[in-house]
């Protein structure tokens, strides 16, 4: 289930290069090209969904979020802490419309509230 004009579908397919952090048959985690923190990794399901509101099945959503802790372990931030963000639609400034989880860490952050 890919969408032809989608950047992250192209990254999943290997048509656009990325720095891989973790991959299995369902998800891909890769480094954000413009990191906002010392650790800034994105996790995407291999299937295309625009965002949280796009009918992603519970099981797929659960798998996506369970991948967060694997990525945190791999990146060495499981103990020090990290922030998980899923920008959704315009007010949140979602720019890539293939659901993705930002995992941010590696240094202390400001308050999580906007
Ligand atoms: P959004 O604002 O949609 O939540 O975040 C999209 C993220 O994708 C941004 O943090 C941006 O830096 C990242 N990004 C955009 N294009 C690319 C790309 O071609 N490769 C990688 N690795 N990250 C990208
Ligand atoms: Zn896509």
Automatic annotation (TrEMBL):
It comes from the Bacteria. A motif (Histidine triad motif) lies at residues 98-102. Pfam families: HIT. Residues 7-114 form the HIT domain. This is Histidine triad nucleotide-binding protein. It comes from Gordonibacter faecis.
